Amino acid sequence: xxxxxxxxxxxxxxxxxxxxxxxxxxxxxxxxxxxxxxxxxxxxxxxxxxxxxxxxxxxxxxxxxxxxxxxxxxxxxxxxxxx
Length: 83
Prior knowledge:
- By secondary structure, this protein is mainly β.
- It has one helix spanning 20-26, and strands spanning 3-6, 10-13, 44-49, 52-54, 66-68, 72-74, 78-82.
- Keywords: 2Fe-2S, Electron transport, Iron, Iron-sulfur, Metal-binding, Transport.
């Protein structure tokens, strides 16, 4: 199971949840979000390290090095930073 580290807040594991956002939410992290569908960008975070896979095609476009937690799953241990 990939580990998810949220810079300055703690860690959890990804255990097959639908998305990275779902895993973080389930683990008790207070993550920002609004639509859960890749439309608004509220769940955007900086990907510090690791690899993710896009599971839905978001409408909101992120800058390089940033991801939408509602639209990806981790493929390896990752570290993210809230923006």
